[in-house]
Amino acid sequence: MSTSIARLPSARSRRTSRSGRARNRAAFFFLLPGCALFALCVIYPIFSSIALSLYNWDGMTEKTFIGLANYAELFQAETFYVALKNNLIWLVFFLLAPPLGLLFALYLNQQVKGMRVVKSLFFAPFVLSGVVVGLVFSWFYDPTFGLLKLIVGHGIPVLGDAHTVTFGIVFAALWPQTPYCMVLYLTGLTAINPEVVEAARMEGAKGWRLLWHVILPQLRPATFMAVVLTVIGALRSFDLIAVMSGGGPFDSSTVLAYYMYDQAIKYYREGYSAAIAVVLFAIMLVYIVFHLRRMLREER
User: Fold this and answer.
1) Cβ(277)–Cβ(49) below 8 Å
2) Do residues 56 and 63 touch, judged by C-beta distance below 8 A?
3) How far is CA 143 from CA 217, 242, 251, 253, in A?
4) Nearest-CA neighbor of 273 among 265, 283, 285?
5) What's the rounded Cα separation, in Å, for the pair 147 and 118?
6) Is the pLDDT of residue 216 over 80?
7) Which distant-in-sequence residues (6+ apart) come within 8 Å of 250 by Cβ?
8) Does the structure show a pLDDT above 80 at 203?
9) pLDDT grade for 86, boundaries at 50, 70 and 90
10) Residue 77, CB half-sphere, CA atoms under 13 Å: how many?
11) What is the per-residue pLDDT for 292?
């Protein structure tokens, strides 16, 4: 009798370990297609671009290994620093999108008749493609017949002036980016605990104090996503520049993503273009790793 009782825990532990191994195998097979697709579409292109940046290649003839010569040329090119400066301008002004999105989300979160129609109107710019947004704002800025001329009273060559073209394109890019952040915050506002808000109001918190100490802490995940996606969007900006200015005048509005495209498509410098892509990827990677570490610290 005592022997059979002693065998029970060991048999139970064997069954538990077998079921655990079965669950691990099932999880592995479920994750395998996604991991394979991620490796094929993300990991392989990253290492392929790094390898290509060490070659001189026009896309048709034989590759020539040149080591770090593409990077040496890149860091000596004046256009690279212009593009880097413009990316920084994009980054600074694009960070206006999360607070503006929060402002609109707080306004649209009210239970008022007809608010759904207003929400759809605010969200409409995000649905439009970058090409459509670029064309709309190109017509808006046109110094001959554009709406800006009617508002100001005289034509302003926003896209034709090297000092204003980048700011004009960034303003156009904020039009769809702000509704995107607004949707993230509207989603976060639906998850706010109303009991906490009511308790804060009973304690006398209202207005700015209620927003800062009660609502914003509960919107931290939405804020994290809005800031990260906005920064990544600023660093990989391309479509509006291609449609509105083509990097001009005289490369004054180019950014790293457009500079990379310009060298690859127009001048057939695939290796040099890959070097620009690697530098842009490194900048994004530093930022993403920094925010991921910060998020993991907060979760712990």
Assistant:
1) yes
2) yes
3) 45, 20, 21, 18
4) 265
5) 23
6) yes
7) 162
8) no
9) very high
10) 20
11) 77
**Average pLDDT, whole number, for the chain?**
86
Gap between the Cα atoms of 228 and 91, Å rounded = 11
**What stretches of the chain adopt beta strand conformation (E)?**
55-56, 64-65
CA distance linking residue 23 with residue 28, whole number of Å? 9
Q: Are 271 and 52 in contact (CB under 8 A)?
A: yes
Cα–Cα distance, 191 to 187 (Å, whole number)? 7
CA 184 to each of CA 59, 74, 99, 153, 227: distance values in angstroms, whole numbers, following the listed order: 41, 38, 12, 38, 11
In the CATH scheme, what architecture does the domain 76-299 have? Orthogonal Bundle (1.10)
Predicted local distance difference test score (pLDDT) of residue 11: 59
Spatial distance between the Cα atoms of 90 and 142, rounded to a whole number of angstroms: 22
Domain boundaries, the chain: 76-299
Q: DSSP assignment of 185-205, as one string?
A: HHHHHHTS-HHHHHHHHHTT-
Global pTM reads 0.83
Which residues, other chains included, contact 170 with Cβ-Cβ below 8 Å and sequence gap of 6+?
Answer: 89, 90, 93, 94
56: three-class secondary structure by DSSP: strand
Decide: 231 and 244 in contact? Cβ < 8 Å: no
Residue 168 is encoded by which pair of tokens?
A: 């004009």
Q: Which residue has the higher pLDDT, 58 or 5?
A: 58
Q: What's the confidence (pLDDT) of residue 2?
A: 46
How many C-beta neighbours within 10 Å does residue 49 have?
Answer: 18
Which residue's entry shows tokens 């671009």? 49
pLDDT one-digit tens code per residue, 153-169: 888 899 999 999 999 99
